[in-house]
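FW: tagging you since you asked about this chain on Friday. Here's the raw sequence from the shared folder, copied in full. Didn't touch anything.
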Amino acid sequence: MASQEEKQTQPFTDIFDEDEAEKSFLLSKPTCLIVLGKPGCGKKTLAKKLAQIWKCIFIEALEVIQTNINEETEFGLKCQELLFKGQNIPEELVTEMILKKIESPEVAHFGYVLSGFPSLSEEYMTVSQQIEKIKNLKLKPDILINIKCSDYDLCQRISGQRQHPDSGQVYQRNQWDPDVIKKHKKEKDKHEEKNEEEEEEEQEEETAEDPLKMSEFLNQLVQRPEDIIENAEERIGTYKDIMLRPIEDLMAEQDCQYLIELDGNQQPDDLLVV
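HL: got it, structure written out here
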């Protein structure tokens, strides 16, 4: 008789504890993340690293455009035609490519890390309309990551960026400014006094060639128009005017345990361990 009662009550017992229920939810669909923040705060860099760690698909406007061009898709051929004519790729086409990528079988299997959407451009859709698109996705974002950084610190960082024209690689001030590099090197040396003699021998050999290489490298770097401090301030002002409030509303609706806010003054690698 007791065994029959146990059988009757068993379906009504919660066989999962809270942690197991959360784990089950996360594994029921591929993990999807969105990285948010002011222009130039490092969204793309962090999103790329997260995509590598989580084995997700990195989705960002330039990345999607390049992929479509390389794969010679219908979208890619349109982009190529426009670029050959010296024309910009319209925001409508970029948005279509991003949404198409999110709906792809590849993303349905691996999940995504989305960066740069919603975008500041309201040429095709307002910021609120872009956020509605995010809310109505079949694969809705599980985790929102917001990178926070003060306007002053962000403008200083952006204005210190330089690009190598051949590779397109962007370098921060601490990667190209000799004074900053020397300062960081001195600070590092203070913390690494052990095995000092061996390290000094290696450094002397390296610095024998460094000045020429560094000089040639520095002469090739250029400042992009968007990195000029006045332009950076304007972009950040636009973000605060048209995007900040809708983004705050989106975050307010998010379950707080799946909302992560990070300090944008830290290096991307440090953000990953927060």
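FW: The domain at 26-150+258-272 is CATH 3.40.50.300 (Rossmann fold).
HL: agreed, and The CA atoms of residues 222 and 264 lie 24 Å apart.
FW: great, closing this out.
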